[in-house]
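Researcher: We plan to redesign the surface later, but first we want a full-length starting point. C-alpha coordinates attached.
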Protein backbone atom coordinates (compact mmCIF):
# COMPACT_ATOMS: atom_id res chain seq x y z
CA UNK A 1 0.00 0.00 0.00
CA UNK A 2 1.61 4.10 -1.54
CA UNK A 3 0.33 7.80 -2.40
CA UNK A 4 0.68 11.59 -4.14
CA UNK A 5 -0.16 14.71 -6.66
CA UNK A 6 -0.06 17.79 -9.55
CA UNK A 7 -1.15 21.49 -11.04
CA UNK A 8 -3.30 23.45 -13.61
CA UNK A 9 -5.68 25.39 -11.31
CA UNK A 10 -9.06 23.79 -11.36
CA UNK A 11 -12.62 23.93 -10.19
CA UNK A 12 -14.68 24.04 -7.00
CA UNK A 13 -12.77 25.49 -4.09
CA UNK A 14 -14.95 25.24 -1.00
CA UNK A 15 -14.04 27.32 2.05
CA UNK A 16 -16.67 27.86 4.73
CA UNK A 17 -17.08 31.25 6.38
CA UNK A 18 -16.92 29.51 9.76
CA UNK A 19 -13.21 28.79 9.44
CA UNK A 20 -10.82 30.35 11.90
CA UNK A 21 -8.06 32.62 10.65
CA UNK A 22 -5.53 29.90 11.45
CA UNK A 23 -7.47 27.25 9.49
CA UNK A 24 -7.72 29.57 6.48
CA UNK A 25 -3.97 30.10 6.58
CA UNK A 26 -3.31 26.34 6.77
CA UNK A 27 -5.67 25.71 3.84
CA UNK A 28 -3.81 28.38 1.87
CA UNK A 29 -0.53 26.58 2.56
CA UNK A 30 -1.99 23.23 1.45
CA UNK A 31 -3.43 24.78 -1.71
CA UNK A 32 -0.02 26.25 -2.58
CA UNK A 33 1.79 23.00 -1.77
CA UNK A 34 -0.44 21.01 -4.14
CA UNK A 35 -0.46 23.62 -6.91
CA UNK A 36 3.33 23.98 -6.80
CA UNK A 37 4.10 20.26 -6.69
CA UNK A 38 1.35 18.38 -8.53
CA UNK A 39 3.33 18.18 -11.78
CA UNK A 40 5.87 15.99 -10.00
CA UNK A 41 3.34 13.31 -9.15
CA UNK A 42 0.22 12.98 -11.32
CA UNK A 43 -1.89 14.63 -14.02
CA UNK A 44 -4.54 15.47 -11.45
CA UNK A 45 -5.95 14.99 -7.97
CA UNK A 46 -8.89 15.84 -5.76
CA UNK A 47 -8.60 16.77 -2.08
CA UNK A 48 -11.06 17.13 0.79
CA UNK A 49 -10.12 18.29 4.29
CA UNK A 50 -12.66 18.54 7.11
CA UNK A 51 -12.28 19.59 10.73
CA UNK A 52 -14.90 19.11 13.45
CA UNK A 53 -17.58 18.37 10.87
CA UNK A 54 -16.77 21.39 8.67
CA UNK A 55 -15.25 21.08 5.21
CA UNK A 56 -12.20 23.35 5.04
CA UNK A 57 -11.10 22.47 1.52
CA UNK A 58 -12.69 20.53 -1.34
CA UNK A 59 -10.94 21.06 -4.66
CA UNK A 60 -9.75 19.45 -7.86
CA UNK A 61 -6.28 20.13 -9.27
CA UNK A 62 -4.74 19.39 -12.64
CA UNK A 63 -6.24 17.26 -15.39
CA UNK A 64 -8.78 14.42 -15.31
CA UNK A 65 -8.29 13.37 -18.95
CA UNK A 66 -5.08 14.24 -20.78
CA UNK A 67 -6.30 13.31 -24.26
CA UNK A 68 -9.39 15.54 -24.03
CA UNK A 69 -7.74 18.12 -21.76
CA UNK A 70 -10.54 17.87 -19.18
CA UNK A 71 -9.80 19.85 -15.99
CA UNK A 72 -10.01 17.98 -12.70
CA UNK A 73 -13.02 18.70 -10.49
CA UNK A 74 -13.51 17.61 -6.91
CA UNK A 75 -16.55 15.59 -8.11
CA UNK A 76 -14.39 13.33 -10.29
CA UNK A 77 -14.67 9.61 -9.59
CA UNK A 78 -11.43 7.71 -8.92
CA UNK A 79 -10.57 4.07 -8.42
CA UNK A 80 -9.81 3.82 -4.72
CA UNK A 81 -8.06 0.44 -4.69
CA UNK A 82 -7.63 -1.04 -1.24
CA UNK A 83 -9.87 1.51 0.48
CA UNK A 84 -12.47 -0.96 -0.86
CA UNK A 85 -11.37 -3.22 2.00
CA UNK A 86 -13.14 -0.92 4.47
CA UNK A 87 -16.44 -1.44 2.66
CA UNK A 88 -15.91 -5.22 2.53
CA UNK A 89 -15.03 -5.34 6.24
CA UNK A 90 -18.07 -3.28 7.22
CA UNK A 91 -20.31 -5.53 5.09
CA UNK A 92 -18.94 -8.54 7.01
CA UNK A 93 -19.55 -6.80 10.35
CA UNK A 94 -23.06 -5.97 9.21
CA UNK A 95 -23.67 -9.70 8.72
CA UNK A 96 -22.17 -10.29 12.17
CA UNK A 97 -24.58 -7.69 13.64
CA UNK A 98 -27.44 -9.60 11.99
CA UNK A 99 -26.25 -12.87 13.51
CA UNK A 100 -25.63 -14.49 10.13
CA UNK A 101 -21.93 -15.11 10.71
CA UNK A 102 -19.46 -14.91 13.62
CA UNK A 103 -15.91 -13.58 13.63
CA UNK A 104 -14.59 -16.88 14.96
CA UNK A 105 -16.38 -18.94 12.29
CA UNK A 106 -14.08 -21.04 10.15
CA UNK A 107 -14.05 -19.85 6.55
CA UNK A 108 -14.50 -23.49 5.51
CA UNK A 109 -18.07 -23.10 6.74
CA UNK A 110 -18.78 -20.76 3.82
CA UNK A 111 -16.11 -21.69 1.26
CA UNK A 112 -16.80 -25.35 0.59
CA UNK A 113 -13.89 -27.67 -0.17
CA UNK A 114 -11.35 -25.08 0.98
CA UNK A 115 -8.75 -26.93 3.05
CA UNK A 116 -5.40 -26.12 4.57
CA UNK A 117 -4.01 -29.28 6.15
CA UNK A 118 -6.28 -29.16 9.16
CA UNK A 119 -5.58 -25.52 10.05
CA UNK A 120 -8.53 -23.37 11.08
CA UNK A 121 -8.74 -20.01 9.35
CA UNK A 122 -11.39 -17.70 10.76
CA UNK A 123 -13.34 -14.75 9.36
CA UNK A 124 -11.33 -12.61 11.79
CA UNK A 125 -8.06 -13.92 10.33
CA UNK A 126 -9.15 -12.72 6.89
CA UNK A 127 -10.21 -9.31 8.22
CA UNK A 128 -6.84 -8.78 9.93
CA UNK A 129 -4.51 -10.34 7.30
CA UNK A 130 -3.44 -13.03 9.74
CA UNK A 131 -4.63 -16.08 7.76
CA UNK A 132 -1.30 -17.13 6.25
CA UNK A 133 -2.95 -17.48 2.82
CA UNK A 134 -0.71 -16.65 -0.13
CA UNK A 135 -1.36 -13.54 -2.24
CA UNK A 136 -3.14 -14.61 -5.42
CA UNK A 137 -1.06 -12.10 -7.43
CA UNK A 138 2.01 -14.20 -6.59
CA UNK A 139 0.60 -17.42 -8.03
CA UNK A 140 2.16 -18.30 -11.38
CA UNK A 141 -0.92 -19.21 -13.43
CA UNK A 142 1.06 -19.45 -16.69
CA UNK A 143 -1.68 -17.55 -18.55
CA UNK A 144 -0.57 -14.64 -20.79
CA UNK A 145 -2.12 -11.28 -19.80
CA UNK A 146 -3.98 -12.91 -16.89
CA UNK A 147 -4.84 -9.48 -15.41
CA UNK A 148 -7.07 -8.81 -18.44
CA UNK A 149 -9.15 -12.00 -18.09
CA UNK A 150 -12.49 -12.30 -16.30
CA UNK A 151 -12.20 -15.06 -13.70
CA UNK A 152 -15.00 -16.31 -11.48
CA UNK A 153 -14.31 -15.87 -7.74
CA UNK A 154 -14.35 -19.65 -7.34
CA UNK A 155 -11.60 -20.08 -9.96
CA UNK A 156 -9.29 -17.74 -8.03
CA UNK A 157 -10.21 -19.37 -4.70
CA UNK A 158 -9.53 -22.86 -6.08
CA UNK A 159 -6.05 -21.67 -7.08
CA UNK A 160 -5.45 -20.40 -3.53
CA UNK A 161 -6.58 -23.74 -2.12
CA UNK A 162 -3.78 -25.47 -4.02
CA UNK A 163 -1.02 -23.33 -2.46
CA UNK A 164 0.48 -23.97 0.99
CA UNK A 165 0.00 -21.54 3.86
CA UNK A 166 2.86 -19.10 4.38
CA UNK A 167 2.51 -19.27 8.18
CA UNK A 168 0.30 -20.69 10.92
CA UNK A 169 -2.97 -18.69 11.11
CA UNK A 170 -3.00 -15.95 13.78
CA UNK A 171 0.76 -16.08 14.39
CA UNK A 172 1.82 -13.33 11.95
CA UNK A 173 0.49 -10.36 10.04
CA UNK A 174 0.97 -10.19 6.28
CA UNK A 175 -1.09 -7.71 4.25
CA UNK A 176 -2.60 -9.78 1.46
CA UNK A 177 -5.40 -9.15 -1.07
CA UNK A 178 -6.43 -12.82 -0.99
CA UNK A 179 -8.00 -12.29 2.43
CA UNK A 180 -10.45 -9.66 1.18
CA UNK A 181 -11.08 -11.53 -2.06
CA UNK A 182 -12.32 -14.42 0.08
CA UNK A 183 -14.41 -12.07 2.23
CA UNK A 184 -16.16 -10.76 -0.89
CA UNK A 185 -17.03 -14.34 -1.82
CA UNK A 186 -18.25 -15.11 1.70
CA UNK A 187 -20.57 -12.07 1.59
CA UNK A 188 -22.11 -13.58 -1.55
CA UNK A 189 -22.50 -17.02 0.01
CA UNK A 190 -24.14 -15.70 3.19
CA UNK A 191 -26.38 -13.04 1.61
CA UNK A 192 -27.28 -14.90 -1.57
CA UNK A 193 -26.54 -11.73 -3.55
CA UNK A 194 -23.64 -10.75 -5.81
CA UNK A 195 -21.05 -8.72 -3.90
CA UNK A 196 -21.68 -5.47 -5.87
CA UNK A 197 -25.44 -5.76 -5.31
CA UNK A 198 -25.10 -6.46 -1.58
CA UNK A 199 -22.76 -3.49 -1.21
CA UNK A 200 -25.08 -1.12 -3.05
CA UNK A 201 -28.25 -2.14 -1.20
CA UNK A 202 -26.81 -2.51 2.30
CA UNK A 203 -23.79 -0.21 2.44
CA UNK A 204 -23.63 2.43 -0.30
CA UNK A 205 -27.30 3.45 -0.47
CA UNK A 206 -27.88 3.64 3.32
CA UNK A 207 -24.72 5.76 3.63
CA UNK A 208 -25.91 8.10 0.85
CA UNK A 209 -22.91 7.39 -1.39
CA UNK A 210 -24.37 8.27 -4.77
CA UNK A 211 -21.00 8.47 -6.56
CA UNK A 212 -19.45 5.26 -5.21
CA UNK A 213 -19.80 2.08 -7.26
CA UNK A 214 -18.24 -1.24 -8.18
CA UNK A 215 -16.15 -0.54 -11.28
CA UNK A 216 -17.66 -1.60 -14.61
CA UNK A 217 -15.81 -0.13 -17.59
CA UNK A 218 -18.70 -0.85 -19.95
CA UNK A 219 -21.16 1.37 -18.06
CA UNK A 220 -21.39 5.10 -18.73
CA UNK A 221 -20.50 6.92 -15.51
CA UNK A 222 -20.40 10.68 -15.13
CA UNK A 223 -17.15 12.32 -13.98
CA UNK A 224 -15.03 9.18 -14.28
CA UNK A 225 -11.37 10.25 -14.17
CA UNK A 226 -8.85 8.50 -16.42
CA UNK A 227 -5.93 6.66 -14.85
CA UNK A 228 -2.29 6.93 -15.96
CA UNK A 229 1.12 5.38 -15.50
CA UNK A 230 4.40 7.25 -15.97
CA UNK A 231 7.49 5.91 -17.72
CA UNK A 232 10.16 7.07 -20.16
CA UNK A 233 9.44 10.66 -19.19
CA UNK A 234 5.75 10.73 -20.12
CA UNK A 235 2.27 9.58 -19.11
CA UNK A 236 0.58 6.52 -20.60
CA UNK A 237 -2.96 5.26 -20.28
CA UNK A 238 -2.99 2.69 -17.47
CA UNK A 239 -3.19 -0.95 -18.54
CA UNK A 240 -6.57 -2.66 -18.42
CA UNK A 241 -7.17 -4.78 -15.33
CA UNK A 242 -10.18 -7.04 -14.84
CA UNK A 243 -12.16 -6.10 -11.75
CA UNK A 244 -12.77 -9.82 -11.19
CA UNK A 245 -9.17 -9.95 -9.95
CA UNK A 246 -9.53 -7.20 -7.35
CA UNK A 247 -13.17 -7.82 -6.33
CA UNK A 248 -13.68 -7.35 -2.55
CA UNK A 249 -10.06 -6.23 -2.17
CA UNK A 250 -10.08 -3.20 -4.49
CA UNK A 251 -12.82 -2.82 -7.14
CA UNK A 252 -14.61 0.36 -6.02
CA UNK A 253 -14.63 3.89 -7.42
CA UNK A 254 -15.52 6.93 -5.34
CA UNK A 255 -15.14 10.69 -4.89
CA UNK A 256 -13.47 12.63 -2.10
CA UNK A 257 -16.93 13.88 -1.05
CA UNK A 258 -18.32 10.34 -0.85
CA UNK A 259 -15.31 9.17 1.14
CA UNK A 260 -16.07 11.90 3.67
CA UNK A 261 -19.75 10.89 3.71
CA UNK A 262 -18.57 7.32 4.28
CA UNK A 263 -16.54 8.45 7.29
CA UNK A 264 -19.55 10.31 8.68
CA UNK A 265 -21.93 7.39 8.07
CA UNK A 266 -19.62 5.03 9.98
CA UNK A 267 -19.25 7.27 13.02
CA UNK A 268 -22.97 8.11 13.06
CA UNK A 269 -23.93 4.42 13.11
CA UNK A 270 -25.77 4.45 9.77
CA UNK A 271 -24.46 1.13 8.45
CA UNK A 272 -23.29 -0.86 11.50
CA UNK A 273 -23.69 -0.56 15.26
CA UNK A 274 -21.35 1.95 16.89
CA UNK A 275 -19.92 -0.75 19.14
CA UNK A 276 -19.13 -2.82 16.03
CA UNK A 277 -17.25 0.13 14.52
CA UNK A 278 -15.27 0.57 17.74
CA UNK A 279 -14.20 -3.08 17.46
CA UNK A 280 -13.40 -2.61 13.77
CA UNK A 281 -10.90 0.19 14.45
CA UNK A 282 -9.08 -1.47 17.35
CA UNK A 283 -5.57 -2.77 16.54
CA UNK A 284 -5.59 -6.56 16.43
CA UNK A 285 -3.55 -8.82 18.69
CA UNK A 286 -1.89 -12.00 17.46
CA UNK A 287 -2.01 -15.30 19.34
CA UNK A 288 1.14 -14.35 21.31
CA UNK A 289 -0.41 -11.03 22.40
CA UNK A 290 1.65 -8.90 20.02
CA UNK A 291 -0.36 -5.94 18.70
CA UNK A 292 -0.35 -5.01 15.00
CA UNK A 293 -1.43 -1.77 13.31
CA UNK A 294 -4.18 -3.43 11.29
CA UNK A 295 -7.77 -3.76 12.48
CA UNK A 296 -10.79 -4.85 10.38
CA UNK A 297 -10.26 -2.96 7.11
CA UNK A 298 -8.52 -0.05 8.86
CA UNK A 299 -4.99 0.83 9.86
CA UNK A 300 -4.79 2.34 13.35
CA UNK A 301 -1.39 3.88 14.05
CA UNK A 302 0.04 6.22 16.65
CA UNK A 303 3.26 8.01 15.75
CA UNK A 304 4.78 10.64 18.01
CA UNK A 305 1.53 11.03 19.91
CA UNK A 306 -0.67 11.45 16.81
CA UNK A 307 -3.31 8.75 16.29
CA UNK A 308 -4.57 8.09 12.75
CA UNK A 309 -7.24 5.69 11.49
CA UNK A 310 -7.79 5.00 7.80
CA UNK A 311 -6.60 3.22 4.69
CA UNK A 312 -4.76 3.81 1.44
CA UNK A 313 -5.37 2.41 -2.01
CA UNK A 314 -3.13 1.62 -4.98
CA UNK A 315 -4.42 0.19 -8.25
CA UNK A 316 -3.36 0.52 -11.88
CA UNK A 317 -3.62 4.20 -12.81
CA UNK A 318 -4.66 5.53 -9.40
CA UNK A 319 -3.63 6.25 -5.81
CA UNK A 320 -5.94 7.22 -2.94
CA UNK A 321 -5.96 7.63 0.83
CA UNK A 322 -8.46 8.61 3.50
CA UNK A 323 -7.30 9.28 7.05
CA UNK A 324 -9.02 10.37 10.25
CA UNK A 325 -7.18 11.93 13.19
CA UNK A 326 -9.66 11.39 16.06
CA UNK A 327 -7.95 13.49 18.73
CA UNK A 328 -7.97 16.51 16.40
CA UNK A 329 -11.26 15.51 14.72
CA UNK A 330 -9.63 16.07 11.32
CA UNK A 331 -10.43 14.04 8.19
CA UNK A 332 -8.27 14.20 5.04
CA UNK A 333 -8.72 12.35 1.77
CA UNK A 334 -6.70 12.63 -1.44
CA UNK A 335 -7.25 10.80 -4.74
CA UNK A 336 -5.00 11.05 -7.79
CA UNK A 337 -5.02 9.57 -11.28
CA UNK A 338 -1.50 8.21 -11.58
CA UNK A 339 0.54 5.32 -10.19
CA UNK A 340 2.99 7.67 -8.49
CA UNK A 341 5.30 5.90 -6.05
CA UNK A 342 5.59 8.93 -3.76
CA UNK A 343 1.90 9.52 -3.07
CA UNK A 344 2.12 8.63 0.63
CA UNK A 345 4.89 11.12 1.19
CA UNK A 346 2.90 13.85 -0.54
CA UNK A 347 -0.15 13.04 1.55
CA UNK A 348 2.03 13.24 4.65
CA UNK A 349 3.15 16.72 3.62
CA UNK A 350 -0.51 17.81 3.42
CA UNK A 351 -1.43 16.27 6.76
CA UNK A 352 1.66 17.77 8.42
CA UNK A 353 0.46 21.25 7.49
CA UNK A 354 -3.10 20.67 8.72
CA UNK A 355 -1.90 19.00 11.94
CA UNK A 356 0.52 21.85 12.59
CA UNK A 357 3.79 20.00 12.06
CA UNK A 358 6.64 21.91 10.55
CA UNK A 359 8.28 20.08 7.68
CA UNK A 360 11.92 19.13 8.02
CA UNK A 361 14.39 21.24 6.10
CA UNK A 362 14.74 19.91 2.58
CA UNK A 363 17.46 17.29 2.34
CA UNK A 364 19.79 17.31 -0.68
CA UNK A 365 19.60 13.90 -2.35
CA UNK A 366 22.57 12.55 -4.31
CA UNK A 367 22.42 9.88 -7.00
CA UNK A 368 24.12 6.55 -6.26
CA UNK A 369 24.89 3.84 -8.77
CA UNK A 370 22.93 0.60 -8.76
CA UNK A 371 26.17 -1.22 -7.86
CA UNK A 372 26.57 0.94 -4.73
CA UNK A 373 22.92 0.52 -3.72
CA UNK A 374 23.18 -3.26 -4.11
CA UNK A 375 25.69 -3.29 -1.24
CA UNK A 376 22.88 -2.36 1.15
CA UNK A 377 20.32 -4.94 0.02
CA UNK A 378 19.51 -7.52 2.69
CA UNK A 379 17.81 -8.10 6.03
CA UNK A 380 19.01 -6.36 9.19
CA UNK A 381 17.86 -7.31 12.69
CA UNK A 382 17.76 -5.65 16.11
CA UNK A 383 17.74 -8.41 18.74
CA UNK A 384 16.71 -6.16 21.64
CA UNK A 385 13.41 -5.15 20.04
CA UNK A 386 13.07 -8.36 17.98
CA UNK A 387 12.43 -6.37 14.81
CA UNK A 388 14.08 -6.56 11.42
CA UNK A 389 14.17 -4.35 8.36
CA UNK A 390 14.33 -5.76 4.85
CA UNK A 391 16.10 -3.45 2.41
CA UNK A 392 15.71 -3.80 -1.35
CA UNK A 393 16.30 -1.76 -4.53
CA UNK A 394 13.58 -0.31 -6.80
CA UNK A 395 13.27 2.69 -9.10
CA UNK A 396 16.89 3.77 -8.64
CA UNK A 397 16.71 3.91 -4.82
CA UNK A 398 16.62 1.56 -1.83
CA UNK A 399 13.50 0.98 0.26
CA UNK A 400 12.80 -0.77 3.55
CA UNK A 401 10.02 -2.87 5.12
CA UNK A 402 9.84 -3.29 8.91
CA UNK A 403 8.91 -6.77 10.15
CA UNK A 404 6.53 -5.43 12.82
CA UNK A 405 4.23 -3.91 10.21
CA UNK A 406 4.85 -0.29 11.25
CA UNK A 407 6.45 0.72 7.96
CA UNK A 408 6.66 -0.60 4.42
CA UNK A 409 8.18 0.70 1.18
CA UNK A 410 10.05 3.34 3.21
CA UNK A 411 12.22 5.40 0.88
CA UNK A 412 15.93 5.82 1.72
CA UNK A 413 17.14 9.15 0.25
CA UNK A 414 20.94 9.20 -0.20
CA UNK A 415 22.70 12.16 1.44
CA UNK A 416 26.17 10.61 1.13
CA UNK A 417 27.32 7.19 -0.05
CA UNK A 418 26.50 5.66 3.36
CA UNK A 419 24.09 8.14 4.96
CA UNK A 420 20.39 8.17 4.08
CA UNK A 421 17.34 10.24 5.07
CA UNK A 422 13.91 8.54 5.41
CA UNK A 423 11.41 11.21 4.24
CA UNK A 424 8.35 8.96 4.64
CA UNK A 425 8.76 9.23 8.44
CA UNK A 426 7.64 12.83 8.58
CA UNK A 427 6.98 13.50 12.25
CA UNK A 428 10.46 12.73 13.47
CA UNK A 429 13.65 13.07 11.47
CA UNK A 430 15.06 9.61 10.72
CA UNK A 431 18.59 8.99 9.46
CA UNK A 432 20.11 5.65 8.41
CA UNK A 433 23.88 5.14 8.54
CA UNK A 434 25.34 1.99 6.94
CA UNK A 435 28.58 0.70 8.43
CA UNK A 436 31.17 -1.48 6.69
CA UNK A 437 33.79 -3.93 7.88
CA UNK A 438 36.47 -5.14 5.47
CA UNK A 439 34.57 -3.49 2.63
CA UNK A 440 31.27 -5.24 3.34
CA UNK A 441 28.13 -3.70 4.86
CA UNK A 442 27.51 -5.30 8.26
CA UNK A 443 24.94 -3.08 9.98
CA UNK A 444 22.68 -0.07 9.69
CA UNK A 445 22.04 2.43 12.48
CA UNK A 446 18.63 4.14 12.43
CA UNK A 447 18.62 7.38 14.41
CA UNK A 448 15.55 9.31 15.57
CA UNK A 449 15.73 10.64 19.14
CA UNK A 450 18.27 7.85 19.75
CA UNK A 451 20.32 5.43 17.67
CA UNK A 452 19.15 1.83 17.15
CA UNK A 453 21.55 -0.72 15.65
CA UNK A 454 20.44 -3.39 13.14
CA UNK A 455 22.89 -6.18 12.30
CA UNK A 456 22.86 -7.59 8.74
CA UNK A 457 21.77 -11.23 8.94
CA UNK A 458 21.35 -12.08 5.25
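Model: Full-length starting sequence:
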Amino acid sequence: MRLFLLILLSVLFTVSFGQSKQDKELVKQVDKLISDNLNNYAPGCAVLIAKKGEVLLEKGYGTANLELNVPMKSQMVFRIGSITKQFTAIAILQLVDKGQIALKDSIQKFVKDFHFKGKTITIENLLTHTSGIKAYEEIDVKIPNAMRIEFSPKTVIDSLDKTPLEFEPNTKYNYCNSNYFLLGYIIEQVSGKPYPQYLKENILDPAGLNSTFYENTAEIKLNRANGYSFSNGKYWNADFISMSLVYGAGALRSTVSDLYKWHQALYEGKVIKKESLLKAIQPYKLADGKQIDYCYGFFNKTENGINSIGHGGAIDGFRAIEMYYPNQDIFITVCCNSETENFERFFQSISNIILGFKAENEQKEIKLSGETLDNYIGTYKNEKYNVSIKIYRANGRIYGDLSNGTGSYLMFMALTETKFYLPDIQRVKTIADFLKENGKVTKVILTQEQAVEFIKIE
